[in-house]
Amino acid sequence: MFGTVNNYLSSVLSATDDYDGEALGTHISLRDVHVQNHNLYIAQPEKLVERFLKPPIDEVVSAHLKVLYQLAQEPPNYMEAYTQQAAACGAVVRLLQSLKDENWCLPLMYRVCLDLRYLAQACEKRCRGFTPGHVLEKAADCMMACFRVCAADGRASEEDTKRLGMMNLVNQLFKVYFRINKLHLCKPLIRAIENCVFKDSFPLPEQITYKYFVGRRAMFDSNYQGAVEDLSFAFTNCPDRFASNKRLILIYLVPVKMLLGYLPAKSLLQRYDLLLFHDLALALKAGNVKRFDEIVRDHELVLIRSGIYLLVEKLKFMVYRNLFKKVFIIRQTHQLDMDDFLAALQFVGVTDVSLNEAHCIIANLIYDGKIKGYISHAHNKLVVSKQNPFPPLISL
Amino acid sequence: MAQVKGSCQSFCPDGESKMRIREKLLHYFELKNGQKNTPGVLVKEFTRSAADAKMPQAKDMRTEQSLTKTVEYLLKDIILDTRKPYNVVYDFIFDRLRAVRREIVIQMFDARQTIRLLEPIVMFLAYSRYRLSVESIEKFDPKICNQHLQECLTGVLCCYEELDRQSSTTTEEPTLRQLERRCYIEGLYQMFNLGSPESFVRALTLPDYVRQDATFRLCFGICLSYQQGNLYRVLMGLPQLPHILCAVASIKLQGIRRSLLQIFTHAYNNKQLTVPAPYLLRLLLIDSPAGLQEQCRHYNLALTPDRKSVLFNKTDFRQSAETLSCRHEPFVESKLARIYLPEVLLLKKI
């Protein structure tokens, strides 16, 4: 594509003159076909570029050509390519600042930041000599500079404000922060979006990504109600053709909902190849503590990698609750012998359990409101309420 | 900045020794037999990097060997010195070890060197955190100690990770002893951060040899139970931990007792029925009826007149009460009494 550098540069120039941000974005994208054009691999393109373009856009383009040059080396020099991309990002910041009341160049910014993140990830994967996460963190700093310019553009009208670019950047930053495990840095970004007057007019795809990450963060903060709301929004609005994305959302949505007392439908799990949760749900329903532990152990790695191990472990007391409810149903009385609960635990295969532990587990369930009643230590009995002794979990 | 490599062979560089002897700035433990103005063994003091301070030179920095010897001297000779109360001993060692830590940074030691020096420092801080937890705030500030302990721990953990990364490129195998030490320190990190999701997630992603280590698994089991909310298992697990780990874990004990008592006020909530004291003593790891009475008084739980059982009432529990302060638990004390402290702190035997 473009053939010569001159052709390429004049094409960039006309995109700039037309205020065509999308086209400009394509011109500096690392995913566009032009990156295969060998004529564009130039180590020092500044002089040439300056003849066509005005600052600061010339810096962006020069840096982009240098990135192409570094990536064309054998082997590709990712670290240097990243440095040049960061320079491009810096130039974009200056470009944004120089354009008052205009936001046509936002697509350019999206593209530069996206490629910056990809390059940082490539460095993390292939280069050595720095602590892991360091390059990504630096990349996040560059994106933050863009974000600050966008967030501060409060005076322009709603169509022209650069604040419209905030959510795209926030999503990029989320991706970095989740990868380097610095979730606390998400907080100010969320606040900035939530305080935005037109937060519902961001493009739907961006909102879906945003809600997905905000939901996951709420999950880590043990704010399960909030997590369900955000993740459900993401799931219902995500179009069906993005099955892998829907699956990703479900990996978090399903266990959080389980924790709130909703069991997932098998057909749904089947469609997204998540039958692991079906097995878990069956064990949970049956109150089979041993089976539950086995499933968790067998899928330990998957659960750890997706970051839901801890969440799934928190379901354990619900398994106990369901088992103990079965004891109540069998006995048909409101005064239940504590030894029956111990026997039930032993029946499902929990061997290392004592009467004292059974007491403590039930005490915990009462404290959480999952069982209504009290324990009489002297009679070794659990006395449950006449009304609704095991309130439905969704009502808690 | 160029790397400075220390050349000083003693505990304290000559320049500092001369200055401090001249200015009579010696600590009690640096005087010969405690006599006034008679210098004994001096150890380099901690000083902050400041704009007016000169760039440290090679002769002001100790060699790695000399740093190791310094740590050994402090944790062998000084720590057993009983002429002064332990909080004075702690202040002295804390300061001198901080100087060691500073030199690790300035001299840019590699992961292996850093681990060797930091591990004993972690052990010392952990031990002191427990031992001094009963002192008043004027004598010991647990918050500052926590901060430094956490800082040293994360420092060591980062070095372990670096070694993990290097292990794919080098053939140098860690010795069994080094692995054993790592497992112990990883366990210590878990117990010190009991209840924190971040540290728990770390435990899940550690290399297999750590996760399969018996001591580490014990710690992991306790943390998992804690996350699940099964305080019974946490309490039953604590006394099984070895010495220093047990001591660090016991710092959390009062909080766990409080939570369990609060749960019991709901579970055993009844105007007539009581719960026998021996049962509570066993579950809460309290050794004497007096200990239980103290808890009851503090959280406003009623005892029966014969003091042999407790009446739980969920509305009476004093939510506003601060958690009782740490104490020296007999099951920890008996473990600590059986060890030779320097050996354990220097991780010669764990």
UniProtKB/TrEMBL annotation, chain A:
Q: What does the record give under GO molecular function? A: double-stranded DNA binding; RNA binding
Write down any Gene Ontology CC term. transcription export complex 2
| InterPro entries found in the cross-reference section | Csn12-like, PCI_dom, TNF_CS, WH-like_DNA-bd_sf
The UniProt entry, under SMART domains, shows: PAM
Domain of life per record:
Eukaryota
Q: Which GO terms describe its biological process?
A: poly(A)+ mRNA export from nucleus; post-transcriptional tethering of RNA polymerase II gene DNA at nuclear periphery; transcription elongation by RNA polymerase II
* Source organism of the structure: Drosophila kikkawai (Fruit fly)
Q: Which family does it belong to?
A: Belongs to the CSN12 family.
This chain belongs to which protein, by name?
Answer: PCI domain-containing protein 2 homolog
Q: Where is the PCI domain?
A: 208-389
UniProtKB/TrEMBL annotation, chain B:
Alphabetized InterPro entries for the sequence: SAC3/GANP/THP3 (IPR045107), SAC3/GANP/THP3_conserved (IPR005062)
Q: Residues in domain SAC3/GANP/THP3 conserved?
A: 11-303
Pfam families assigned: SAC3_GANP
Q: Which GO terms describe its cellular component?
A: centrosome; nucleus; spindle
Superkingdom, natural source: Eukaryota
Q: Which residues form the signal peptide?
A: none
Q: Name one GO biological process term.
A: centrosome duplication
Q: What is this protein called?
A: SAC3 domain-containing protein 1
